[in-house]
Description:
By secondary structure, the protein is α+β, with helices and mostly antiparallel strands. Helix content is 28%, strand content 36%.
Amino acid sequence: MVVKIEFYSVNSKFVEIEWLLITQSKRNNSMMFGAFVTHSPESCPLNNKSNKKIFMQFEKKIKTNMKKYKIKKILGFYMSALEHLWVIIFEAESSHDIENLCLETGIASFNTVKIVPMNTLEGVMRKLKRYS
């Protein structure tokens, strides 16, 4: 299935991405999701004391609540400080579980969070070969 995902970056440059999504894992019934997290410079933990306090607790709160929200793994957590952009790659049963984790940990308290299903390049290549 080809899905078009559209979003705006902090600097308002339009970005359009076409993803070939093959997300269901046959072995453990989990899926891979990317959470694209953005905030304004004013709400950035580097510039905002109350958000810095929330941010400093993320790692502990995420680890504490992963099982509660059926998050199997965090495959990656990347940040671009100047773009005020985070990319978190989850292995989870549903995007709703990730949404609840973002609410519980405070990630959603000062960020906009977009959660999308994802796959590896290898998974996409296998699918393309199968349907060629």
